[in-house]
Amino acid sequence: MKPPSTLRRESGALWLGAALMCIALPAAAVDELTVISFGRADRAALAAAYLEPFAKATGVSVHSLSYDGQITELTQMVHAGAPVWDVMQVESRTLVQGCRQGLFEKLDSARVPPAADLIPGALSECGVGIFTWAQALVYSDQFRDAPKSWPDFWDIGKFPGKRGLRHSAKYTLEIALLADGVDPKDVYSTLSTDAGVGRAFRKLDQIRKDTVWWEAAAQPGALIAAGRVSMSSAYTLWFDPAEERNRHTRIVWRQSLYDIDSWAIPAGSPKRDDAYRFIAFASSPAQQKVLSEQVTYGPTNRSAIELLPARLAGNLPSSTPNLAGALRIDTAFWIEHGDALERRFNSWAPAICRQQDDEDDDDYFDLPVCQDAQGKMRVSREPVNASRIGHPGDPRQVSRTITMTMSDAMRFTPDRIEVRKGETIRFVLQNEGQLRHELVLGEPEALRRHAAMMQMMPDMQHSGPNMASLAAGERGQLIWKFTHTGMVTFACLQSGHLEAGMRGAVAVQ
Predict the structure, then answer these.
(1) Mind listing the pLDDT tens digit for each residue in 254-268?
(2) In this structure, are residues 9 and 114 in contact, taking their beta carbons and an 8 Å threshold?
(3) In angstroms, rounded to a whole number, what is the distance separating the alpha carbons of residues 373 and 369?
(4) N or C of the chain: less Cβ packing under 10 Å?
(5) The whole model's pTM is what?
(6) Whole-angstrom Cα distance, residue 123 to residue 15?
(7) Angle CA(166)–CA(38)–CA(250) in degrees, nearest 5?
(8) Whether the Cβ atoms of residue 315 and residue 250 lie closer than 8 Å to each other
(9) Is 117 helix (H, G, I), strand (E, B) or coil?
(10) Side-chain half-sphere of 306: how many Cα atoms within 13 Å?
Protein backbone atom coordinates (compact mmCIF):
# COMPACT_ATOMS: atom_id res chain seq x y z
CA MET A 1 0.00 0.00 0.00
CA LYS A 2 1.37 3.40 -0.96
CA PRO A 3 2.20 5.39 2.17
CA PRO A 4 0.67 8.85 2.59
CA SER A 5 2.72 11.83 1.50
CA THR A 6 4.87 13.74 3.95
CA LEU A 7 2.51 16.71 3.61
CA ARG A 8 -0.47 14.54 4.52
CA ARG A 9 1.31 13.13 7.54
CA GLU A 10 2.21 16.61 8.71
CA SER A 11 -1.27 18.03 8.20
CA GLY A 12 -2.80 15.05 9.97
CA ALA A 13 -0.41 15.37 12.89
CA LEU A 14 -1.12 19.07 13.29
CA TRP A 15 -4.89 18.51 13.18
CA LEU A 16 -4.83 15.59 15.61
CA GLY A 17 -2.60 17.56 17.96
CA ALA A 18 -5.16 20.37 17.98
CA ALA A 19 -7.89 17.84 18.70
CA LEU A 20 -5.98 16.38 21.62
CA MET A 21 -5.33 19.85 23.01
CA CYS A 22 -9.08 20.40 23.05
CA ILE A 23 -9.61 17.05 24.75
CA ALA A 24 -7.25 18.13 27.52
CA LEU A 25 -9.60 20.92 28.67
CA PRO A 26 -10.93 20.48 32.22
CA ALA A 27 -14.06 18.37 32.49
CA ALA A 28 -15.63 21.02 34.69
CA ALA A 29 -15.94 23.26 31.63
CA VAL A 30 -18.27 20.85 29.89
CA ASP A 31 -21.64 19.25 30.48
CA GLU A 32 -23.38 16.26 28.95
CA LEU A 33 -23.04 15.66 25.19
CA THR A 34 -25.99 13.99 23.45
CA VAL A 35 -24.99 11.83 20.46
CA ILE A 36 -27.72 10.43 18.20
CA SER A 37 -27.13 7.34 16.05
CA PHE A 38 -29.18 4.75 14.23
CA GLY A 39 -30.70 1.97 16.29
CA ARG A 40 -29.00 -0.70 14.20
CA ALA A 41 -26.54 -3.44 15.08
CA ASP A 42 -23.62 -1.03 14.55
CA ARG A 43 -24.68 1.13 17.50
CA ALA A 44 -22.64 -1.04 19.88
CA ALA A 45 -19.62 -0.68 17.60
CA LEU A 46 -19.98 3.11 17.57
CA ALA A 47 -20.13 3.10 21.36
CA ALA A 48 -17.00 0.95 21.67
CA ALA A 49 -15.01 2.94 19.10
CA TYR A 50 -16.11 6.49 19.85
CA LEU A 51 -18.59 7.20 22.64
CA GLU A 52 -17.03 5.34 25.55
CA PRO A 53 -13.38 6.22 24.75
CA PHE A 54 -14.31 9.90 24.27
CA ALA A 55 -16.05 10.04 27.63
CA LYS A 56 -13.08 8.36 29.30
CA ALA A 57 -10.51 10.61 27.60
CA THR A 58 -12.29 13.91 28.21
CA GLY A 59 -14.49 13.46 31.25
CA VAL A 60 -17.45 14.60 29.15
CA SER A 61 -20.57 12.59 29.92
CA VAL A 62 -21.96 11.17 26.67
CA HIS A 63 -25.68 10.51 26.43
CA SER A 64 -26.39 8.10 23.56
CA LEU A 65 -29.80 7.89 21.89
CA SER A 66 -31.00 6.16 18.73
CA TYR A 67 -33.40 7.32 16.01
CA ASP A 68 -34.85 5.89 12.82
CA GLY A 69 -33.37 8.43 10.41
CA GLN A 70 -36.44 10.70 10.39
CA ILE A 71 -35.68 14.37 11.06
CA THR A 72 -39.12 15.62 12.11
CA GLU A 73 -38.05 16.05 15.72
CA LEU A 74 -34.76 17.70 14.71
CA THR A 75 -36.62 20.16 12.48
CA GLN A 76 -38.92 21.13 15.33
CA MET A 77 -35.96 21.61 17.70
CA VAL A 78 -33.98 23.76 15.28
CA HIS A 79 -36.97 25.91 14.31
CA ALA A 80 -37.74 26.43 18.00
CA GLY A 81 -34.13 27.43 18.61
CA ALA A 82 -33.72 24.75 21.26
CA PRO A 83 -31.85 21.70 19.93
CA VAL A 84 -31.09 19.11 22.60
CA TRP A 85 -29.19 16.84 20.22
CA ASP A 86 -25.54 17.79 19.84
CA VAL A 87 -24.06 15.34 17.30
CA MET A 88 -25.97 13.15 14.84
CA GLN A 89 -25.16 10.19 12.63
CA VAL A 90 -26.83 10.90 9.29
CA GLU A 91 -27.03 9.23 5.91
CA SER A 92 -25.86 11.18 2.89
CA ARG A 93 -29.35 12.18 1.70
CA THR A 94 -30.30 13.54 5.12
CA LEU A 95 -26.98 15.41 5.30
CA VAL A 96 -27.43 17.12 1.93
CA GLN A 97 -31.07 18.03 2.48
CA GLY A 98 -30.57 19.08 6.10
CA CYS A 99 -27.62 21.26 5.15
CA ARG A 100 -29.70 22.99 2.45
CA GLN A 101 -32.54 23.54 4.92
CA GLY A 102 -30.30 25.00 7.62
CA LEU A 103 -30.80 22.10 10.03
CA PHE A 104 -27.06 21.48 10.43
CA GLU A 105 -24.15 23.75 11.26
CA LYS A 106 -21.88 24.79 8.41
CA LEU A 107 -18.56 23.35 9.58
CA ASP A 108 -15.51 25.43 10.49
CA SER A 109 -12.73 24.02 8.32
CA ALA A 110 -10.16 24.81 11.02
CA ARG A 111 -11.90 22.46 13.46
CA VAL A 112 -12.33 19.38 11.27
CA PRO A 113 -9.75 17.10 9.65
CA PRO A 114 -8.19 18.28 6.36
CA ALA A 115 -9.88 16.88 3.26
CA ALA A 116 -6.52 15.42 2.16
CA ASP A 117 -6.56 13.10 5.19
CA LEU A 118 -9.95 11.63 4.22
CA ILE A 119 -11.31 9.54 1.36
CA PRO A 120 -13.18 11.40 -1.43
CA GLY A 121 -16.57 12.64 -0.28
CA ALA A 122 -15.93 12.24 3.45
CA LEU A 123 -15.77 15.98 4.15
CA SER A 124 -18.66 18.21 3.14
CA GLU A 125 -20.14 21.57 4.05
CA CYS A 126 -22.05 20.17 7.02
CA GLY A 127 -20.62 16.70 7.67
CA VAL A 128 -17.54 14.65 8.49
CA GLY A 129 -17.57 11.01 7.40
CA ILE A 130 -17.84 8.32 10.09
CA PHE A 131 -17.47 5.30 7.83
CA THR A 132 -18.09 4.12 4.31
CA TRP A 133 -20.21 1.19 3.14
CA ALA A 134 -20.58 -0.34 -0.29
CA GLN A 135 -22.56 -2.43 -2.70
CA ALA A 136 -20.53 -4.77 -4.86
CA LEU A 137 -20.72 -7.94 -6.93
CA VAL A 138 -20.84 -11.00 -4.65
CA TYR A 139 -20.69 -14.52 -6.05
CA SER A 140 -20.65 -18.18 -5.08
CA ASP A 141 -17.25 -19.87 -5.19
CA GLN A 142 -18.72 -22.68 -7.32
CA PHE A 143 -17.35 -21.09 -10.49
CA ARG A 144 -14.13 -22.52 -11.94
CA ASP A 145 -13.19 -19.06 -13.23
CA ALA A 146 -14.10 -16.19 -10.95
CA PRO A 147 -16.14 -13.27 -12.33
CA LYS A 148 -14.14 -10.06 -12.26
CA SER A 149 -16.56 -7.32 -13.29
CA TRP A 150 -20.13 -6.24 -13.91
CA PRO A 151 -19.84 -7.29 -17.59
CA ASP A 152 -19.19 -10.82 -16.25
CA PHE A 153 -22.37 -10.48 -14.18
CA TRP A 154 -24.27 -10.14 -17.47
CA ASP A 155 -22.50 -13.13 -19.10
CA ILE A 156 -25.00 -15.90 -18.35
CA GLY A 157 -23.29 -18.25 -20.82
CA LYS A 158 -19.89 -18.13 -19.14
CA PHE A 159 -21.28 -17.86 -15.60
CA PRO A 160 -24.58 -19.80 -15.47
CA GLY A 161 -27.24 -19.16 -12.87
CA LYS A 162 -29.73 -16.57 -11.76
CA ARG A 163 -28.66 -13.08 -10.80
CA GLY A 164 -29.75 -11.02 -7.80
CA LEU A 165 -30.33 -7.26 -8.04
CA ARG A 166 -31.82 -4.74 -5.64
CA HIS A 167 -35.44 -3.89 -6.47
CA SER A 168 -34.83 -0.18 -7.00
CA ALA A 169 -33.60 2.23 -9.63
CA LYS A 170 -30.89 3.50 -7.28
CA TYR A 171 -27.78 1.30 -7.46
CA THR A 172 -29.32 -0.95 -10.13
CA LEU A 173 -29.24 1.64 -12.93
CA GLU A 174 -25.65 2.56 -12.08
CA ILE A 175 -24.68 -1.11 -12.19
CA ALA A 176 -26.34 -1.54 -15.58
CA LEU A 177 -24.33 1.34 -17.07
CA LEU A 178 -21.09 0.04 -15.55
CA ALA A 179 -21.86 -3.35 -17.12
CA ASP A 180 -22.42 -1.61 -20.45
CA GLY A 181 -18.94 -0.11 -20.38
CA VAL A 182 -19.59 3.38 -18.98
CA ASP A 183 -16.64 4.68 -16.99
CA PRO A 184 -17.50 5.35 -13.31
CA LYS A 185 -16.75 9.07 -13.69
CA ASP A 186 -19.30 9.29 -16.52
CA VAL A 187 -22.15 7.28 -14.96
CA TYR A 188 -24.19 10.18 -13.58
CA SER A 189 -23.70 12.48 -16.55
CA THR A 190 -24.96 9.58 -18.71
CA LEU A 191 -27.85 8.78 -16.39
CA SER A 192 -28.96 12.42 -16.36
CA THR A 193 -30.00 12.12 -20.03
CA ASP A 194 -33.01 10.33 -21.52
CA ALA A 195 -30.66 8.39 -23.77
CA GLY A 196 -28.60 7.26 -20.77
CA VAL A 197 -31.68 6.10 -18.86
CA GLY A 198 -32.88 4.18 -21.90
CA ARG A 199 -29.44 2.61 -22.22
CA ALA A 200 -29.56 1.40 -18.61
CA PHE A 201 -33.00 -0.20 -19.00
CA ARG A 202 -32.03 -1.84 -22.29
CA LYS A 203 -29.05 -3.38 -20.50
CA LEU A 204 -31.32 -4.64 -17.72
CA ASP A 205 -33.66 -6.13 -20.34
CA GLN A 206 -30.82 -8.49 -21.34
CA ILE A 207 -30.94 -10.34 -17.99
CA ARG A 208 -34.50 -9.59 -16.92
CA LYS A 209 -35.68 -13.20 -17.16
CA ASP A 210 -32.62 -14.36 -15.19
CA THR A 211 -32.95 -11.86 -12.33
CA VAL A 212 -34.25 -12.45 -8.82
CA TRP A 213 -35.03 -9.14 -7.16
CA TRP A 214 -34.19 -8.47 -3.52
CA GLU A 215 -35.21 -5.72 -1.09
CA ALA A 216 -33.58 -6.36 2.30
CA ALA A 217 -29.84 -6.40 2.99
CA ALA A 218 -29.80 -9.99 4.27
CA GLN A 219 -31.47 -11.47 1.19
CA PRO A 220 -28.52 -11.78 -1.26
CA GLY A 221 -26.61 -14.00 1.18
CA ALA A 222 -29.65 -16.20 1.71
CA LEU A 223 -30.31 -16.42 -2.04
CA ILE A 224 -26.70 -17.45 -2.76
CA ALA A 225 -26.61 -19.95 0.12
CA ALA A 226 -29.84 -21.56 -1.09
CA GLY A 227 -28.50 -21.80 -4.67
CA ARG A 228 -31.26 -19.58 -6.03
CA VAL A 229 -28.74 -17.17 -7.52
CA SER A 230 -25.09 -17.67 -8.38
CA MET A 231 -24.16 -14.01 -7.98
CA SER A 232 -25.81 -10.83 -6.78
CA SER A 233 -25.32 -7.19 -6.05
CA ALA A 234 -25.10 -6.93 -2.26
CA TYR A 235 -24.11 -4.78 0.68
CA THR A 236 -20.57 -5.93 1.45
CA LEU A 237 -21.13 -5.46 5.19
CA TRP A 238 -23.09 -8.72 5.15
CA PHE A 239 -20.20 -10.68 3.61
CA ASP A 240 -17.46 -10.43 6.22
CA PRO A 241 -15.12 -13.30 5.22
CA ALA A 242 -14.33 -13.94 8.88
CA GLU A 243 -17.87 -15.26 9.40
CA GLU A 244 -18.49 -18.95 8.75
CA ARG A 245 -21.67 -18.29 6.77
CA ASN A 246 -19.61 -16.47 4.12
CA ARG A 247 -16.94 -19.10 3.50
CA HIS A 248 -18.38 -19.94 0.05
CA THR A 249 -18.90 -16.37 -1.16
CA ARG A 250 -16.47 -13.88 -2.64
CA ILE A 251 -16.60 -10.12 -3.25
CA VAL A 252 -15.55 -8.40 -6.48
CA TRP A 253 -14.45 -4.93 -5.38
CA ARG A 254 -13.83 -3.58 -8.88
CA GLN A 255 -16.37 -0.82 -9.60
CA SER A 256 -18.13 -1.16 -6.27
CA LEU A 257 -20.61 1.57 -5.32
CA TYR A 258 -19.94 3.34 -2.04
CA ASP A 259 -21.55 5.92 0.20
CA ILE A 260 -20.73 7.51 3.54
CA ASP A 261 -22.50 8.02 6.86
CA SER A 262 -21.45 11.27 8.53
CA TRP A 263 -21.43 13.19 11.78
CA ALA A 264 -23.38 16.47 11.71
CA ILE A 265 -24.01 19.15 14.34
CA PRO A 266 -27.63 20.35 14.70
CA ALA A 267 -27.87 24.09 13.96
CA GLY A 268 -27.84 26.18 17.11
CA SER A 269 -26.51 23.45 19.38
CA PRO A 270 -25.31 25.04 22.65
CA LYS A 271 -22.67 22.29 22.87
CA ARG A 272 -21.03 23.17 19.56
CA ASP A 273 -17.50 23.21 21.01
CA ASP A 274 -17.87 19.77 22.58
CA ALA A 275 -19.47 18.51 19.36
CA TYR A 276 -16.37 19.56 17.41
CA ARG A 277 -14.16 17.87 20.03
CA PHE A 278 -16.13 14.65 19.68
CA ILE A 279 -16.00 14.68 15.86
CA ALA A 280 -12.25 15.37 15.97
CA PHE A 281 -11.75 12.46 18.35
CA ALA A 282 -13.95 10.13 16.28
CA SER A 283 -12.12 11.06 13.07
CA SER A 284 -8.69 10.07 14.36
CA PRO A 285 -7.05 7.01 12.75
CA ALA A 286 -6.77 5.14 16.06
CA GLN A 287 -10.50 5.34 16.84
CA GLN A 288 -11.58 4.55 13.28
CA LYS A 289 -9.36 1.48 13.43
CA VAL A 290 -11.37 0.30 16.43
CA LEU A 291 -14.65 0.70 14.55
CA SER A 292 -13.45 -1.36 11.57
CA GLU A 293 -12.27 -4.07 13.96
CA GLN A 294 -15.81 -4.20 15.36
CA VAL A 295 -17.77 -4.17 12.09
CA THR A 296 -16.58 -4.18 8.47
CA TYR A 297 -17.29 -0.57 7.61
CA GLY A 298 -14.45 1.24 5.86
CA PRO A 299 -12.73 4.06 7.76
CA THR A 300 -12.89 7.51 6.21
CA ASN A 301 -9.46 8.54 7.53
CA ARG A 302 -6.90 7.20 5.06
CA SER A 303 -4.30 6.58 7.76
CA ALA A 304 -6.63 4.25 9.68
CA ILE A 305 -6.29 1.63 6.94
CA GLU A 306 -2.55 1.42 7.61
CA LEU A 307 -3.22 0.49 11.23
CA LEU A 308 -5.36 -2.53 10.32
CA PRO A 309 -4.17 -6.05 9.53
CA ALA A 310 -3.76 -6.48 5.77
CA ARG A 311 -6.37 -9.26 5.62
CA LEU A 312 -9.01 -7.08 7.28
CA ALA A 313 -8.06 -3.93 5.35
CA GLY A 314 -8.38 -5.80 2.07
CA ASN A 315 -12.05 -6.48 2.78
CA LEU A 316 -13.08 -2.90 3.53
CA PRO A 317 -14.67 -0.52 0.99
CA SER A 318 -12.17 2.28 1.62
CA SER A 319 -8.91 0.37 1.25
CA THR A 320 -6.82 1.93 -1.50
CA PRO A 321 -7.15 -0.96 -4.01
CA ASN A 322 -10.89 -1.32 -3.40
CA LEU A 323 -11.53 2.40 -3.66
CA ALA A 324 -9.65 2.69 -6.95
CA GLY A 325 -12.26 2.67 -9.70
CA ALA A 326 -15.15 2.61 -7.22
CA LEU A 327 -18.22 4.78 -7.88
CA ARG A 328 -19.29 7.17 -5.13
CA ILE A 329 -23.07 7.45 -4.99
CA ASP A 330 -24.14 10.91 -6.15
CA THR A 331 -26.68 11.89 -3.51
CA ALA A 332 -27.57 15.21 -5.15
CA PHE A 333 -28.37 13.35 -8.39
CA TRP A 334 -30.81 11.02 -6.61
CA ILE A 335 -32.47 13.87 -4.73
CA GLU A 336 -33.15 15.57 -8.08
CA HIS A 337 -33.97 12.58 -10.27
CA GLY A 338 -34.84 9.77 -7.85
CA ASP A 339 -38.64 9.99 -7.83
CA ALA A 340 -38.96 9.92 -11.62
CA LEU A 341 -36.44 7.09 -12.03
CA GLU A 342 -38.02 4.98 -9.28
CA ARG A 343 -41.45 5.40 -10.89
CA ARG A 344 -40.07 4.26 -14.23
CA PHE A 345 -38.27 1.35 -12.58
CA ASN A 346 -41.40 0.22 -10.74
CA SER A 347 -43.40 0.28 -13.96
CA TRP A 348 -40.70 -1.85 -15.62
CA ALA A 349 -39.76 -4.36 -12.92
CA PRO A 350 -42.10 -7.04 -11.54
CA ALA A 351 -43.62 -6.54 -8.10
CA ILE A 352 -42.21 -8.67 -5.27
CA CYS A 353 -44.53 -11.29 -3.78
CA ARG A 354 -45.16 -10.88 -0.08
CA GLN A 355 -44.14 -14.10 1.60
CA GLN A 356 -46.24 -15.95 4.17
CA ASP A 357 -44.53 -17.37 7.27
CA ASP A 358 -46.33 -20.71 6.99
CA GLU A 359 -49.41 -22.27 5.46
CA ASP A 360 -51.62 -21.06 8.32
CA ASP A 361 -50.35 -17.50 8.20
CA ASP A 362 -53.11 -15.83 6.21
CA ASP A 363 -52.24 -12.34 7.38
CA TYR A 364 -50.08 -11.55 4.36
CA PHE A 365 -51.85 -11.83 1.04
CA ASP A 366 -50.25 -12.30 -2.36
CA LEU A 367 -50.21 -9.62 -5.01
CA PRO A 368 -52.17 -10.58 -8.14
CA VAL A 369 -48.97 -10.71 -10.24
CA CYS A 370 -45.54 -10.82 -8.64
CA GLN A 371 -42.12 -12.49 -8.55
CA ASP A 372 -41.50 -15.07 -5.84
CA ALA A 373 -38.27 -15.82 -3.98
CA GLN A 374 -37.16 -18.26 -6.72
CA GLY A 375 -37.48 -15.60 -9.40
CA LYS A 376 -40.64 -17.17 -10.84
CA MET A 377 -43.64 -15.07 -11.81
CA ARG A 378 -46.75 -15.95 -9.85
CA VAL A 379 -50.30 -15.06 -10.85
CA SER A 380 -53.06 -15.34 -8.24
CA ARG A 381 -56.69 -15.26 -9.33
CA GLU A 382 -58.14 -16.73 -6.13
CA PRO A 383 -60.24 -14.54 -3.84
CA VAL A 384 -58.82 -13.71 -0.43
CA ASN A 385 -60.22 -16.20 2.12
CA ALA A 386 -61.12 -15.38 5.69
CA SER A 387 -58.52 -16.50 8.21
CA ARG A 388 -58.83 -17.16 11.91
CA ILE A 389 -58.36 -13.45 12.60
CA GLY A 390 -61.06 -12.35 10.13
CA HIS A 391 -60.71 -10.43 6.89
CA PRO A 392 -60.82 -6.89 5.47
CA GLY A 393 -64.20 -5.34 6.12
CA ASP A 394 -66.70 -3.60 3.86
CA PRO A 395 -66.87 0.14 4.75
CA ARG A 396 -70.65 0.00 4.18
CA GLN A 397 -71.02 -2.60 6.94
CA VAL A 398 -69.07 -0.81 9.70
CA SER A 399 -70.90 -1.26 12.99
CA ARG A 400 -68.55 0.70 15.24
CA THR A 401 -65.63 3.10 15.07
CA ILE A 402 -62.80 2.75 17.59
CA THR A 403 -60.24 5.54 17.90
CA MET A 404 -56.73 4.42 18.81
CA THR A 405 -53.47 6.31 19.37
CA MET A 406 -49.88 5.11 19.00
CA SER A 407 -47.01 6.70 20.92
CA ASP A 408 -43.23 6.63 21.25
CA ALA A 409 -43.76 5.14 24.72
CA MET A 410 -44.38 2.00 22.64
CA ARG A 411 -48.03 1.73 23.63
CA PHE A 412 -51.42 1.58 21.94
CA THR A 413 -54.31 3.37 23.63
CA PRO A 414 -56.54 1.48 24.14
CA ASP A 415 -54.66 -1.81 24.06
CA ARG A 416 -57.62 -4.03 25.04
CA ILE A 417 -60.78 -4.08 22.90
CA GLU A 418 -63.95 -6.18 22.96
CA VAL A 419 -66.05 -6.92 19.85
CA ARG A 420 -68.71 -9.41 18.85
CA LYS A 421 -68.27 -12.13 16.26
CA GLY A 422 -69.38 -10.80 12.87
CA GLU A 423 -68.78 -7.14 13.72
CA THR A 424 -67.00 -4.89 11.22
CA ILE A 425 -64.87 -2.34 13.05
CA ARG A 426 -63.34 0.85 11.71
CA PHE A 427 -60.10 1.57 13.57
CA VAL A 428 -59.23 5.27 13.34
CA LEU A 429 -55.52 5.52 14.10
CA GLN A 430 -53.39 8.50 15.14
CA ASN A 431 -49.61 8.33 15.43
CA GLU A 432 -48.80 10.81 18.20
CA GLY A 433 -45.07 10.02 18.22
CA GLN A 434 -41.99 11.12 16.28
CA LEU A 435 -41.28 7.57 15.02
CA ARG A 436 -43.12 5.47 12.44
CA HIS A 437 -45.64 3.14 14.07
CA GLU A 438 -48.07 0.58 12.70
CA LEU A 439 -50.94 -1.63 13.73
CA VAL A 440 -50.80 -5.19 12.41
CA LEU A 441 -53.55 -7.70 13.18
CA GLY A 442 -52.51 -11.34 13.44
CA GLU A 443 -51.94 -14.41 15.54
CA PRO A 444 -49.29 -14.05 18.27
CA GLU A 445 -46.72 -16.48 16.86
CA ALA A 446 -46.98 -15.11 13.31
CA LEU A 447 -46.52 -11.57 14.61
CA ARG A 448 -43.55 -12.63 16.72
CA ARG A 449 -41.84 -14.30 13.75
CA HIS A 450 -42.48 -11.32 11.51
CA ALA A 451 -41.15 -8.94 14.17
CA ALA A 452 -37.99 -11.06 14.37
CA MET A 453 -37.56 -10.70 10.60
CA MET A 454 -37.93 -6.93 10.93
CA GLN A 455 -35.22 -6.94 13.59
CA MET A 456 -32.87 -8.81 11.26
CA MET A 457 -33.79 -6.71 8.23
CA PRO A 458 -34.89 -3.25 9.46
CA ASP A 459 -34.92 -1.83 5.93
CA MET A 460 -37.45 -4.44 4.77
CA GLN A 461 -40.71 -2.95 3.51
CA HIS A 462 -43.93 -4.80 4.26
CA SER A 463 -47.60 -4.17 3.73
CA GLY A 464 -50.94 -5.97 3.72
CA PRO A 465 -54.69 -5.53 4.18
CA ASN A 466 -54.36 -6.47 7.88
CA MET A 467 -52.18 -3.49 8.76
CA ALA A 468 -51.87 0.28 8.74
CA SER A 469 -48.45 1.98 8.87
CA LEU A 470 -48.28 5.65 9.84
CA ALA A 471 -45.44 8.17 9.75
CA ALA A 472 -44.94 10.59 12.64
CA GLY A 473 -48.09 12.65 13.20
CA GLU A 474 -50.02 10.80 10.49
CA ARG A 475 -53.65 9.66 10.75
CA GLY A 476 -55.14 6.60 9.09
CA GLN A 477 -57.67 3.82 9.37
CA LEU A 478 -58.13 0.07 9.11
CA ILE A 479 -61.50 -1.64 8.55
CA TRP A 480 -61.70 -5.26 9.71
CA LYS A 481 -64.43 -7.89 10.10
CA PHE A 482 -63.97 -10.33 12.98
CA THR A 483 -65.37 -13.71 11.95
CA HIS A 484 -64.21 -16.07 14.73
CA THR A 485 -64.50 -15.98 18.50
CA GLY A 486 -61.30 -15.84 20.51
CA MET A 487 -58.38 -13.43 20.84
CA VAL A 488 -56.90 -11.49 17.93
CA THR A 489 -53.54 -9.90 18.66
CA PHE A 490 -52.32 -6.61 17.25
CA ALA A 491 -48.80 -5.20 17.42
CA CYS A 492 -46.35 -2.73 15.94
CA LEU A 493 -43.73 -4.65 13.94
CA GLN A 494 -41.30 -1.77 13.39
CA SER A 495 -37.87 -2.98 14.50
CA GLY A 496 -37.79 -3.32 18.30
CA HIS A 497 -41.30 -1.96 18.95
CA LEU A 498 -43.04 -5.26 19.72
CA GLU A 499 -40.17 -6.23 22.01
CA ALA A 500 -40.63 -2.91 23.84
CA GLY A 501 -44.25 -3.84 24.60
CA MET A 502 -46.17 -2.29 21.71
CA ARG A 503 -48.94 -4.86 21.49
CA GLY A 504 -52.60 -5.38 22.37
CA ALA A 505 -55.54 -7.72 21.85
CA VAL A 506 -59.11 -7.83 20.59
CA ALA A 507 -61.45 -10.19 22.45
CA VAL A 508 -64.01 -11.52 19.98
CA GLN A 509 -67.14 -12.85 21.76
Answers:
(1) 999 999 999 999 999
(2) no
(3) 13
(4) C
(5) 0.69
(6) 14
(7) 40
(8) no
(9) helix
(10) 11
